[in-house]
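Researcher: Structure for this, please.
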Amino acid sequence: MPTPEQEQLDANIDLLLAIQFDGMDPVARQNLTESMEDIREEYRQAAEKGKTSKYYKDLGESIAKSLPNIVKGAMAASEAFKKGDYISGSAAIMDVCASIIPVFASLLSATGPEGALVGALFSVIGQILSFFAPKQPSLEEKIQKMLDHLQSEQQIINITAVGHGINAYTSSLRTKCMGIHKMENAVVLAGTVSLTPESKTVTGTGTSFTQSAELEQWLVFDSDTSRKPYKIAAIANDTSLTLATPYSGAPSPSTTVKLFCRKTIRRGIAEILAMPLETETQADSFIEEMKELKWGLVQDQAKLLAPEFANWEVAGYLERPENQKKEGWPEVLGIWCRTYTDLLTANMMLNCLADPKTLDSLIHDTQESNDKNPLPANAKKDCHTVLRNLKALAGMLRHSWESDKKEMLKIVQAVRPTARERGLYVSTGHWSGGRVLYVAAGRKGPLDWQYKKNTGWMQTFSINVPKDQVGSDTPKYELLTCQENPNAIERFTLDSVTANLYDRSLLLTRMEKYPNQDGSVTQTFNGCVDVSSLPDANDQRATRIYTAHASGYWYVNIHVADAHNKVTRSNWEPHTSSGLAHIRAVDRPSATLADDPDGAAIPQGQYEIIYGGYSGNGRIWVELQNSWAEVPSPWEEGYNGIEVDPYYLWVFGSKGFACATHTSVVQCKNGKLPSPRWITYKFKWADFPQSSNPPNLTQPADQENWVNSLNILSLCPCADGTLSVSLQNNSFWTANYEIRLKDKRIDTNAWVLRGGEGDQIQKMPIPCWSLLESLKANLLSD
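Model: Predicted structure, token format:
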């Protein structure tokens, strides 16, 4: 009977196996799958040995603890890179690197071949890193786009040198780790074969396996729609051969088969370490490969010195306060984060693929005292030497980064507050009796709000990041406005760097009819009171528009606007209770939070969750997968509005604000909870600095009355940990916040008065924020 820990580990491995790794070489994919399966056996061995050994007990626990974060990082990287989100993808890769560090620490606490049981885990990490690393745009391309924003000739030279040097180093290291291979054109074998699921035996009819196939070549069976390759392990005769792994497809009594020869142009580290060592000739070939590998690694390190120095110069540029005010500073920070991420990823890949288990085993086999090794004494000694050299070099590379990591952490922590202050603020303010749009670039202190004259009289707005802008260091956001008079939806482009608003286009207007996507009758657009938007899942240049309507009755609509402003309507119109005033939509979370007790409530698949907020009603409308219901807010008497982030639904009003995970809201919608698990927050007098408080309020009762009078009109949780609120007393405040899900509380620092006012506020973070946070977490890991 498996233990709960083994069941959890098996579940995580199954999740790893489910990742598609689209575009991976089929043979590499098969090798990765086999290594994933081997992790189960390595953990079983560590758990068994752990019954009598503290070392193995700690090692087994480190494997079990690291695997969930590795899975989470790999899944996040896969999803991000599919969307073209290179910043989030790089951040996820950093998370994978950070997850394996504790295993290294456990492993290195003992020496010898008996002290390494994690070869498959290291192999999986190395292969995952090598697969994802090339998916990012080259640093040279990124750098070329940012040169216009740098204001120092020397900085242009420095950052360009860094980019070229890092690209050359990481590319060379990937080649040494993975090798270079080429799959030759397929050859159709004569005859047919029969296949049985879970069997390694292939039985042929009219075949000539001994003449047409060889060991180590690969077969693909035409009846198998997965196109999975299988390695030939043994050939018995012309009509019978054995596969290295069991056939996993559907049964086939008769199918044709193609043979592939995978040509090795240059061996990778794992292939070099797998070379046979039984004869002196084999030893000579092995020693040549190992020496070439060592010299290449040493030369790569030497070439890295110049760009590494330039990297520190760029860090100095980022730390200087006068540079932090420049328009191009966020872009320089994003490039700088990614250069160091690439360095850490490449070096971690090397340490994983030159894994201690294999190295220690080979070092033990080639020791002078090992009489079982058939090699001549001199050949055995030479092999032993080159193996120890590689282990020492891999360890040197790993340890050489420790001092760099400490200095890099200081820099990250120094620039992080400025990075959090940056970003872009958007609000609706009042002018001449109506609402208009204001935009401000994030800076410390009062914000410099700029009135945008190219919009109409507004009710609300929505901002999204188009798919073709995801991962950019200088994204162009899409802003949709819900116009009041005439009632309409308009589309704009909002520059994240300059805060310019342009490309105004009319999408939907009152009393106009728009065709349904299924070709049925057209429907009239009317009575829109709020708008929300998301990039379309099927067309990267299209937008899904969610609207709330009050036109004799209350309902929700969805339209899709393509890149040319052509709009079609979903033939779907759920009705709600009276008073619908707000609408928000969010994509299904790609992963649930670690401490979320309702994580299993979110169904798998690609869909959005839609929320509707009411005026004068304490309920909230919730829809997902064409099913909807209402759930209670924290306050029966009502609230002012709702907001969403990737993990939480927020609600706010005169009682303060509260949040609940999407998962707990779904549980409540499905009748599994009486209410979402709301975490509430109420302002306190101590949260406001003395300079911002009414100076004449010295009595506790007066102070409490003032705090209780604060009515939140709008709230925005930002990914950079900034919470922005607009109050009814015409003031706008921000604070840094943290949600402690397990403790059911929201912590903030002091609220800061930022200038301006408005009925709606939204902040977009600095584009590289997720990468900066993952880099910090990696540098903090032991």
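Researcher: Any notable elements?
Model: DSSP finds 17 helices and 37 strands in the chain. The two ends are 34 Å apart (CA to CA).
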